[in-house]
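Below is just one:
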Amino acid sequence: MTTPTVFRSAKAAPGDRGQQLGKAFPDRIARAGAFYDRLFAAAGAEPRDVTDWALQAFEHIGAWAPDLAEEIDGIARGAGLPLWRIAALNARTEIVGRFGRTQHPECSTVVYAPADGRPPVTAQTWDWHDGMRDGWFVWTVEHPDGRIVHTVTEFGIVGKIGVNTAGLGLHFNILGHTSDKSAAPTGPWIPVHVLARRILDTCASVSEAAALATGTPVAASSSLTLADHAHGRTTAAAIELSAAGSVLLRPDEDGFLLRTNHFVDHGLAAGEVLGAEDPGTYRRMDVLRERTAAVTAPDRENLVEALTCHVDEGAELCCHAQPDAALGKRWETLATVSLDVAAGGLLAHAGGPCTFPLASWAEVS
């Protein structure tokens, strides 16, 4: 395994910042776009659908968060790619969810919120297609007001998992709901990856982030697991988002907040898609409960160890691609991430938690 790529933006203006990123990584952004072209096609999306939804997403982003639209435009200019290409990357979840077949469940998240006021402890696996093994990086964004955002994201996509120096952390799990494939939205919608970045850019607490997330229309279902630490107190919550509505979930009595890839809220679970297609998400949740229940003093190492479980051990919390699997079914844990909410930093590892003691981590603060 290699240490993840880390890039720090020195440009304050959104368009300049995006252009700087595009110029730094034109080949890797182009490769990401080419991979998603193949994935969209394999899933059943037509090229015209991809272009139309990408430009529609960009229009909505421009009206909702003009600075992020400028950043996306800057990435396209810097990488020498058409605008729709970068917009499609940022709306890749919506495009696959709308036009593609059901995707394999991905990602497992563990957040521990101590009741005694200590900072939260977090860890997450990011499971995705092995064709994106070198398609992600850690991006540090410095804002003019002094706020710094660190996000683990894909080349060309403005955000995903991350933390800011205001003391807010965000983990990211994709969900699936029948409303993802319902009639096209009649009003504006925001890509969930763009929403995640906007939260990190503008929010300082779980309550602020929850208000923004639940008040933003989406066209793809996701779970955003949030944690903050302020005034000697930790707060955590998971927001289940869908076009059919949004729900806020709190940690269990033991302080753990666990997420895989199905709806926990009973109302939204009636429209469950991913769990109906692949019950592995429920097995992962059960195993996470068993493993975290055995942890007496939760720290980063213990949570990573809890995530170190393979399919032959009961659940595929740590994924390894099958070499002979078809495109779109080659699942791998591409990254393991832990957030240091109190310090406003993160640690990212290229690979699954089973290689945690041996491989290199990037510590960003």
Summary: DSSP finds twelve helices and 14 strands in the chain. The chain has a mean pLDDT of 93. The chain has two domains: 6-99, 108-364.
